[in-house]
């Protein structure tokens, strides 16, 4: 049962353009969402997060949008740079006292930013 | 503190052997997690510690797997009688106890069972 889904395994975007990575979830108990970036042979690196009480969070070139009614979130990267080429994982968790706050990950989207 | 540290980075072992991995979390982080990632998949939760207490285990963690976190500092993950299906990247992450903080991951241990 894949509770977090990233339906696009790969995405290619030209340098300077916008990259949009999508993620869907099924578990309505999730209340905190994160994006991680991963290079080969390295662990995931935290990029940006959003709480379910918000619908947008911005950090520099990265913006995450959350649509709770659709159980959908997206990561926008603008402008895209060659160094952004990596695998991006969407993750969700349930926060709060007494919970493990473990992360449930999607299968990832490989982003390639071309010159 | 340079972040979450995992050792070894790579381990090749013969089927049936036991292996042990170590994770040193960020020093002030109470929470420590182990995940496993196989090819083409995202990391999957294995187990979680709050300080020295192991509070949750995934059903992915068979009887051959055991994890410890003595004194609430570093953690070890042991796999007994390894099988080829255990080949994966084993990731450790740590985070603070407060609610809305992210987990920081180590670089992982790549296990290959031959």
Descriptive account of the structure:
The complex is a heterodimer of chains A (115) and B (114). Chain A is mainly beta and 115 residues long. Helices cover 0% and strands 52% of the residues of chain A. Chain A is built from no helices and 11 strands. In chain A, strands 2, 4, 5, 9, 10 and 11 form a 6-stranded mixed sheet that branches. In chain A, strands 1-3-8-7-6 form a 5-stranded antiparallel sheet, with no helix packed on it. Chain A starts with a strand and ends with a strand. Chain B contains no helices and 11 strands. In chain B, a hairpin with an 8-residue loop joins β9 (88-95) and β10. In chain B, the strands form 2 sheets. In chain B, strands 2, 4, 5, 6, 9, 10 and 11 form a 7-stranded mixed sheet that branches. By secondary structure, chain B is mainly beta. The radius of gyration of chain B is 13 Å and the shape is globular. The model of chain B has no long low-confidence stretch (mean pLDDT 93). The termini of chain B are far apart. The A-B interface holds A 4, 32, 34, 36, 41-46, 49, 51, 89, 91, 95-96, 100-108 and B 4, 6, 31, 33, 35, 40-45, 48, 55-56, 91, 93, 95, 99-100, 102-108, 110.
